[in-house]
Amino acid sequence: MNIFRLLGDLSHLLAIIILLVKIWKTRSCAGISGKSQILFAVVYTSRYLDLINAFISPYNTIMKIVFLAASYGTIYLMYMKFKATYDVNHDTFRIEFLIAPAAVLALIVNHAFEPLEILWTFSIYLESVAILPQLFLVSKTGEAESITSHYLFMLGSYRALYIFNWIYRYYAENHYDLIAIVAGIVQTVLYCDFFYLYITKVLKGKKLQLPA
Amino acid sequence: GTREKSKDEL
Protein backbone atom coordinates (compact mmCIF):
# COMPACT_ATOMS: atom_id res chain seq x y z
CA MET A 1 0.00 0.00 0.00
CA ASN A 2 1.22 3.54 -0.70
CA ILE A 3 -0.15 7.01 -0.04
CA PHE A 4 -1.32 7.48 -3.62
CA ARG A 5 -3.39 4.30 -3.64
CA LEU A 6 -4.73 5.01 -0.13
CA LEU A 7 -5.81 8.52 -1.15
CA GLY A 8 -7.24 7.07 -4.34
CA ASP A 9 -9.33 4.50 -2.49
CA LEU A 10 -10.52 7.12 0.00
CA SER A 11 -11.42 9.46 -2.87
CA HIS A 12 -13.36 6.60 -4.46
CA LEU A 13 -15.11 5.81 -1.18
CA LEU A 14 -15.95 9.50 -0.68
CA ALA A 15 -17.42 9.71 -4.19
CA ILE A 16 -19.73 6.78 -3.51
CA ILE A 17 -20.77 8.27 -0.15
CA ILE A 18 -21.42 11.70 -1.70
CA LEU A 19 -23.65 10.06 -4.32
CA LEU A 20 -25.64 8.08 -1.74
CA VAL A 21 -26.01 11.20 0.46
CA LYS A 22 -27.14 13.28 -2.53
CA ILE A 23 -29.81 10.79 -3.55
CA TRP A 24 -30.92 10.09 0.01
CA LYS A 25 -30.99 13.72 1.22
CA THR A 26 -32.57 15.25 -1.88
CA ARG A 27 -34.72 12.11 -2.32
CA SER A 28 -33.95 12.52 -5.99
CA CYS A 29 -31.56 11.03 -8.53
CA ALA A 30 -32.00 13.87 -11.01
CA GLY A 31 -28.82 14.47 -12.98
CA ILE A 32 -27.41 11.04 -12.17
CA SER A 33 -26.98 8.42 -14.87
CA GLY A 34 -28.47 5.08 -13.85
CA LYS A 35 -26.66 3.54 -16.83
CA SER A 36 -23.26 4.45 -15.35
CA GLN A 37 -24.31 3.06 -11.99
CA ILE A 38 -25.26 -0.22 -13.68
CA LEU A 39 -21.85 -0.31 -15.36
CA PHE A 40 -20.11 0.29 -12.01
CA ALA A 41 -22.06 -2.59 -10.45
CA VAL A 42 -20.96 -4.83 -13.34
CA VAL A 43 -17.36 -3.63 -12.90
CA TYR A 44 -17.25 -4.39 -9.16
CA THR A 45 -19.09 -7.70 -9.52
CA SER A 46 -16.76 -8.99 -12.23
CA ARG A 47 -13.66 -7.67 -10.46
CA TYR A 48 -14.39 -8.68 -6.88
CA LEU A 49 -15.39 -12.28 -7.47
CA ASP A 50 -12.02 -13.16 -5.92
CA LEU A 51 -13.63 -12.24 -2.59
CA ILE A 52 -14.70 -15.88 -2.52
CA ASN A 53 -11.29 -17.49 -2.89
CA ALA A 54 -8.61 -14.90 -2.15
CA PHE A 55 -8.09 -13.05 1.13
CA ILE A 56 -5.55 -10.24 0.77
CA SER A 57 -6.19 -8.05 3.83
CA PRO A 58 -9.10 -6.90 6.02
CA TYR A 59 -8.89 -3.49 4.31
CA ASN A 60 -9.12 -5.09 0.85
CA THR A 61 -12.07 -7.28 1.79
CA ILE A 62 -13.99 -4.54 3.58
CA MET A 63 -13.53 -2.01 0.75
CA LYS A 64 -14.68 -4.54 -1.86
CA ILE A 65 -17.81 -5.32 0.14
CA VAL A 66 -18.51 -1.59 0.64
CA PHE A 67 -18.09 -0.82 -3.07
CA LEU A 68 -20.33 -3.73 -4.05
CA ALA A 69 -23.01 -2.86 -1.49
CA ALA A 70 -22.94 0.85 -2.33
CA SER A 71 -23.20 0.28 -6.08
CA TYR A 72 -26.17 -2.09 -5.74
CA GLY A 73 -27.68 0.20 -3.12
CA THR A 74 -27.45 3.14 -5.52
CA ILE A 75 -29.16 1.13 -8.26
CA TYR A 76 -31.91 0.19 -5.81
CA LEU A 77 -32.41 3.86 -4.87
CA MET A 78 -32.42 4.98 -8.50
CA TYR A 79 -34.52 2.31 -10.14
CA MET A 80 -36.87 1.50 -7.29
CA LYS A 81 -37.16 3.84 -4.32
CA PHE A 82 -36.73 7.13 -6.18
CA LYS A 83 -37.62 5.82 -9.62
CA ALA A 84 -39.99 8.75 -10.22
CA THR A 85 -37.04 11.16 -10.16
CA TYR A 86 -34.89 9.15 -12.56
CA ASP A 87 -34.18 11.14 -15.73
CA VAL A 88 -35.01 8.33 -18.15
CA ASN A 89 -35.37 10.70 -21.12
CA HIS A 90 -31.82 12.02 -20.90
CA ASP A 91 -30.07 8.89 -19.63
CA THR A 92 -30.07 7.26 -23.05
CA PHE A 93 -26.45 6.15 -23.62
CA ARG A 94 -26.40 2.67 -25.22
CA ILE A 95 -24.27 0.81 -22.64
CA GLU A 96 -24.21 -2.34 -24.77
CA PHE A 97 -21.79 -0.40 -26.98
CA LEU A 98 -19.46 -0.21 -23.98
CA ILE A 99 -19.97 -3.68 -22.53
CA ALA A 100 -19.52 -5.64 -25.78
CA PRO A 101 -16.17 -4.07 -26.83
CA ALA A 102 -14.83 -4.39 -23.28
CA ALA A 103 -15.76 -8.07 -23.27
CA VAL A 104 -14.25 -8.74 -26.70
CA LEU A 105 -11.06 -6.85 -25.85
CA ALA A 106 -10.77 -8.76 -22.56
CA LEU A 107 -10.84 -12.02 -24.52
CA ILE A 108 -8.08 -10.81 -26.83
CA VAL A 109 -5.78 -8.72 -24.60
CA ASN A 110 -5.29 -10.26 -21.15
CA HIS A 111 -2.58 -11.65 -18.87
CA ALA A 112 -4.01 -15.18 -18.86
CA PHE A 113 -6.91 -16.91 -20.54
CA GLU A 114 -8.62 -18.01 -17.33
CA PRO A 115 -12.18 -17.13 -16.20
CA LEU A 116 -11.26 -14.93 -13.20
CA GLU A 117 -8.47 -13.25 -15.17
CA ILE A 118 -10.73 -12.51 -18.16
CA LEU A 119 -13.41 -11.13 -15.81
CA TRP A 120 -10.85 -8.93 -14.04
CA THR A 121 -9.58 -7.66 -17.41
CA PHE A 122 -13.15 -7.04 -18.58
CA SER A 123 -13.84 -5.04 -15.38
CA ILE A 124 -10.72 -2.93 -15.95
CA TYR A 125 -11.67 -2.11 -19.55
CA LEU A 126 -15.32 -1.46 -18.66
CA GLU A 127 -14.44 0.78 -15.72
CA SER A 128 -12.37 3.01 -18.01
CA VAL A 129 -15.51 3.95 -19.98
CA ALA A 130 -18.20 3.44 -17.32
CA ILE A 131 -18.48 7.18 -16.65
CA LEU A 132 -19.40 7.98 -20.27
CA PRO A 133 -23.19 7.72 -19.77
CA GLN A 134 -22.89 10.11 -16.80
CA LEU A 135 -20.77 12.63 -18.73
CA PHE A 136 -23.16 12.23 -21.68
CA LEU A 137 -26.14 12.98 -19.37
CA VAL A 138 -24.43 16.10 -17.97
CA SER A 139 -23.68 17.30 -21.51
CA LYS A 140 -27.29 16.66 -22.57
CA THR A 141 -28.81 18.49 -19.61
CA GLY A 142 -26.10 21.14 -19.98
CA GLU A 143 -25.49 21.41 -16.26
CA ALA A 144 -24.98 19.48 -13.02
CA GLU A 145 -25.84 20.13 -9.39
CA SER A 146 -22.74 21.11 -7.43
CA ILE A 147 -22.94 17.98 -5.25
CA THR A 148 -23.01 15.87 -8.43
CA SER A 149 -19.89 17.67 -9.66
CA HIS A 150 -18.17 16.96 -6.33
CA TYR A 151 -19.11 13.29 -6.80
CA LEU A 152 -17.60 13.33 -10.30
CA PHE A 153 -14.46 15.12 -9.12
CA MET A 154 -13.84 12.53 -6.40
CA LEU A 155 -14.58 9.67 -8.78
CA GLY A 156 -12.24 11.05 -11.43
CA SER A 157 -9.51 11.77 -8.87
CA TYR A 158 -9.49 8.18 -7.63
CA ARG A 159 -8.09 6.69 -10.85
CA ALA A 160 -5.83 9.73 -11.40
CA LEU A 161 -4.28 8.99 -7.98
CA TYR A 162 -3.96 5.34 -9.00
CA ILE A 163 -1.73 6.46 -11.87
CA PHE A 164 0.66 7.93 -9.29
CA ASN A 165 0.37 4.64 -7.39
CA TRP A 166 1.46 2.75 -10.53
CA ILE A 167 4.40 5.11 -11.08
CA TYR A 168 5.40 4.62 -7.45
CA ARG A 169 5.09 0.82 -7.71
CA TYR A 170 7.17 0.81 -10.91
CA TYR A 171 10.09 2.56 -9.18
CA ALA A 172 9.65 1.21 -5.65
CA GLU A 173 8.55 -2.37 -6.34
CA ASN A 174 9.78 -2.68 -9.93
CA HIS A 175 6.47 -4.01 -11.18
CA TYR A 176 3.72 -2.64 -13.40
CA ASP A 177 0.51 -3.87 -15.02
CA LEU A 178 0.09 -2.36 -18.47
CA ILE A 179 -3.58 -3.34 -18.79
CA ALA A 180 -4.50 -1.46 -15.60
CA ILE A 181 -2.23 1.47 -16.47
CA VAL A 182 -3.46 2.04 -20.04
CA ALA A 183 -7.12 1.68 -19.00
CA GLY A 184 -6.53 3.97 -16.02
CA ILE A 185 -5.04 6.66 -18.25
CA VAL A 186 -7.97 6.42 -20.67
CA GLN A 187 -10.37 6.65 -17.72
CA THR A 188 -8.66 9.74 -16.29
CA VAL A 189 -8.40 11.46 -19.69
CA LEU A 190 -12.18 11.15 -20.09
CA TYR A 191 -12.54 13.39 -17.01
CA CYS A 192 -10.14 16.09 -18.20
CA ASP A 193 -12.83 18.28 -19.74
CA PHE A 194 -14.88 17.96 -16.55
CA PHE A 195 -11.84 18.58 -14.30
CA TYR A 196 -11.21 21.83 -16.19
CA LEU A 197 -14.82 22.99 -15.75
CA TYR A 198 -14.85 21.88 -12.10
CA ILE A 199 -11.69 23.81 -11.20
CA THR A 200 -12.51 26.93 -13.21
CA LYS A 201 -16.21 27.09 -12.27
CA VAL A 202 -17.44 24.95 -9.40
CA LEU A 203 -14.53 25.88 -7.13
CA LYS A 204 -15.42 29.54 -7.75
CA GLY A 205 -18.94 28.92 -6.54
CA LYS A 206 -20.45 28.91 -9.99
CA LYS A 207 -22.77 26.19 -11.24
CA LEU A 208 -21.31 23.61 -13.58
CA GLN A 209 -22.64 24.71 -16.96
CA LEU A 210 -21.46 22.91 -20.06
CA PRO A 211 -21.27 24.99 -23.24
CA ALA A 212 -24.51 23.96 -24.97
CA GLY B 1 3.78 -12.40 -13.40
CA THR B 2 3.01 -8.73 -13.11
CA ARG B 3 -0.70 -9.53 -12.60
CA GLU B 4 -0.14 -11.34 -9.30
CA LYS B 5 1.17 -8.22 -7.63
CA SER B 6 -1.57 -5.85 -8.75
CA LYS B 7 -4.21 -8.20 -7.37
CA ASP B 8 -3.99 -6.31 -4.09
CA GLU B 9 -5.42 -3.23 -5.78
CA LEU B 10 -9.13 -2.45 -5.64
From TrEMBL, chain A:
Any one of the GO CC terms: endoplasmic reticulum membrane
Keywords: Endoplasmic reticulum, ER-Golgi transport, Membrane, Protein transport, Receptor, Transmembrane, Transmembrane helix, Transport
Any one biological process term the GO annotation gives: protein transport
MF (Gene Ontology): ER retention sequence binding
Coiled coil: none
Family note: Belongs to the ERD2 family.
Name this protein carries in UniProt: ER lumen protein-retaining receptor
